[in-house]
Amino acid sequence: MVTMKQIAERTGVSVSTVSLVMNHRDEGRVKPAIAAHVRAVADELGYRVNPMASSLRTNRTHILGFISEEVATTPYAGGMILGAQSAASQYGYMLITVSTDGGMDEDEEIEALQRYGADGFLYAKMSNRVTEVPRRLNDCPLVLVDATDPDGLVPSVEPDEYRIAYDATRRLLDAGCGRIAYVGCSEGGMIAQQGRLAGYRAAIEDAGRKFNERLVVNVLNNGPALEAVSDLFDWERPDGFFCFNDARAWYVYECAARRGLTVGRDLSVVGVDNHRVFAETLSPQLTTVELPHFEMGYWAAAKLISLIEDRSLDESEWPSTTAPMPPLDAGIPAKIHCRLIEKESVVR
Amino acid sequence: MVTMKQIAERTGVSVSTVSLVMNHRDEGRVKPAIAAHVRAVADELGYRVNPMASSLRTNRTHILGFISEEVATTPYAGGMILGAQSAASQYGYMLITVSTDGGMDEDEEIEALQRYGADGFLYAKMSNRVTEVPRRLNDCPLVLVDATDPDGLVPSVEPDEYRIAYDATRRLLDAGCGRIAYVGCSEGGMIAQQGRLAGYRAAIEDAGRKFNERLVVNVLNNGPALEAVSDLFDWERPDGFFCFNDARAWYVYECAARRGLTVGRDLSVVGVDNHRVFAETLSPQLTTVELPHFEMGYWAAAKLISLIEDRSLDESEWPSTTAPMPPLDAGIPAKIHCRLIEKESVVR
DNA sequence: CTGAAAGCGCTAACAT
DNA sequence: ATGTTAGCGCTTTCAG
């Protein structure tokens, strides 16, 4: 490991000068020629700061803690993490991901992160729910990802469920579907459900059609759900389906198979892909909406860093739409709509 | 943050004494009464070591790097991470997970981990392949998880594919299946395929049956695969299927649905669940084999720590079988067979 | 403009 | 058995 001392020796200046140069605080304080020389030698020797050592003085580790209890079970958590990591490394931070498999160990893990001096935290869920924030995080810079806190005090990045549903439904309309059903979610606390239903309804009505309650079924992810979808099939004969998630799209798929119908020919399905079932298995047959996990992670981390560094962030560049949806049944996941929910933030 | 200095002041001893006590190096060096007092005060004040500070002297951060390029795409990566994390925290280590989405950034991320002083690395894949280890990791303590290095020099933890297949097939035999097919993998470099096929064959033959080549199809995960399985269905009429993974089990499922057959009644399927398709969607219908990701992560981390600390590890307690398989079609994922592949290790 | 010096929290020789 | 001292690599006054 090459240290500042070594650079100082090689260049004949003092460590403090090297420090100034390496931290880009040399403007008008170090003679440009010297600064250049120092930089050259540092490059040559392959100098890298020792974050541990500097954190001792500065109380900044450039470590971000990413806490999620669902990394273990949902594949798309990876996207969020990748996004957050990408922003982190862009700003010179390191992301420490901690998976807290349920409650007990969570507090301990957060404590460990704090011991290691994390400068701030990302607290993530895999589907937007009202989420109690662990007390231990109360006085740290904090951003929620795909989650909402009960008091509306913590900044968060969430998908724009309304627009997701609106566009998905619009897509089915464009594809010429006459009777479009919504297979929603009846589980409590799922923030997405309201927005999705509203978006679905708005798209239908904006197209000059009448909203038909009977084309909506809200189900849980279990046995009775299959029956509910089956009944929907027989009674309403929809030719287009917007599904809350892939588990629900699966019921549609199964019902179709049992009736000798082919998705993509006899009926169209657009669903939100939460568990990669679409991507891994059904993608050839279904059009999927992939939530912008990467973007959510990215912007959440960017926001967090701005909080930590007390900078402002140019939120105008944030994507409200990250990509247009692909043609129906093309099987290419679409990333759409990531909206930032800005809240009064708890600083440091 | 409470420091050793504060404890020293409160107890009227020197910092070095406190250090000795807090590191459990006080046996015979510090008077028991004093040690107890120090500990009491430390407890009271809620003292926690500052790992950054001690790492500066000791060159040990108690940080483990977990590197995987597939965390982003495979849900079960979470299990590995959880396992590794669990072992880490048990031994007083912190796990830093880094997802390297493909090649380029990988080297950078590893470099960052090394700057942060990681004591050792776990390098993981999500399905056992021959894997070139990044050069940068060459001189670090390193353990592979679900991966094999080309030269056989790096210690690794891998699933016992033979036993997995043997037991899965055995299960189908026990269920009374007469014609058991194997839907395997024709992709190159998949170490699991050989073991699985061998295990399948051995189970068949040990049951006094004749191995029938025509009941084996090895396919890729794509369109022609469905046709191949479809042909298998029509030509050989199997009543039991052992599937390489869930994507392949899906083909079986679809073929059955199209023929009006019900899995779990007209035919039995046991498959390895790589992508949670089973767990999330098909579990009511299929018996699944869930690879012991948690255990692999756990033991890999434990092994790594023993390497770092130059301790030996009691490998006799390692689980060769972690749980018996559940009754057929119960839909409960089974964790089976995790074998440690011990290699000549590259030390520190 | 540059350097000397102090100190972040902790560990480890070396004294006592 | 305990304290003194030096120093890990870096940042940051403060003098010059």
Automatic annotation (TrEMBL), chains A, B:
Boundaries of every HTH lacI-type domain copy: 2-58
Keywords tagged on the record: DNA-binding, Repressor, Transcription, Transcription regulation
Q: Entry's Gene3D superfamilies?
A: 3.40.50.2300, lambda repressor-like DNA-binding domains
PROSITE patterns per record: HTH_LACI_2 (PS50932)
In terms of domain of life, where is this protein from?
Bacteria
State one molecular function term (GO): DNA binding
InterPro entries tied to this protein: HTH_LacI, Lambda_DNA-bd_dom_sf, Peripla_BP/Lac1_sug-bd_dom, Peripla_BP_I
User: CDD domains from the entry?
Assistant: HTH_LacI, PBP1_sucrose_transcription_regulator
Q: What is this protein called?
A: LacI family DNA-binding transcriptional regulator
